[in-house]
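hey all, quick one before standup. I had two proteins in the batch that finished overnight and I want to keep them in one place so we stop losing track of which output belongs to which input. First protein below, input sequence then structure tokens straight from the run.
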Amino acid sequence: MSRLVETGRSALRSALERVGRGWGRVQERRPLSTDLLESDDAYLVVFDAPGVRGEDVDVTFLDRTVEVNLERFRDFYDGYDLVFPGRGVSLSGSVTLPRDADVTPEGANATLTRNGTLHVEIPKRGGSSDVDVVEEND
């Protein structure tokens, strides 16, 4: 009887793992959720960026488009086995600013907040460049 139970648990764990990996791939193909805001002086793009560190974020600005690539890692927990690996690890997204946007990457900044959002602020006036990312402190 215990062999039958163990076989059932093994089959369930295998099925959950396959479903979890599939769901992670779906997340990796979907673009990150974003908001685009505008003030008199700048545009602000807010990306959902859960579970990442500043060094794992790449922000690029080119031709009115803000592109973000995130690599996040799963923490290991002593005494626990991963049953459902459902979170994607390579995430990306982009936002194209309005056609009439006149912005400059000089002075642009990106802040990774503690609540899992990435704020990219681009001052108004033209150009293209990489954007530095800083993590919000306590």
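OK second protein, same deal, sequence then tokens:
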Amino acid sequence: MDDEEPLADYMARRDSRIGRLRAVHACGPQRGEHVDPEQPRLIQRWNGSAWEVFTVAANLSEARKLLRPADTESPAQESAQPARSPLAPGRGRHRKQR
């Protein structure tokens, strides 16, 4: 097979994932992140071959702070630009055609 990835490229791609974190429910079956937000979460780290327990978070908001610290910046640090509507002005039937 000529389309196989060279071993060096595969190893570099695999090694780039080492240290990645994820949050899972500490008790019971694995469910969506949004289910039972007040339940504790296990923070796991990928070691290259398996997920291992890294730490424990008290609830979903604490887990998010550990996983995505850039998302938890204070609102004062956001830009002062006014929010724009995601919709364009459009030419719907409710507008008069001239």
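Flagging for whoever picks this up: The longest helix spans residues 7-15. The mean pLDDT is 81.
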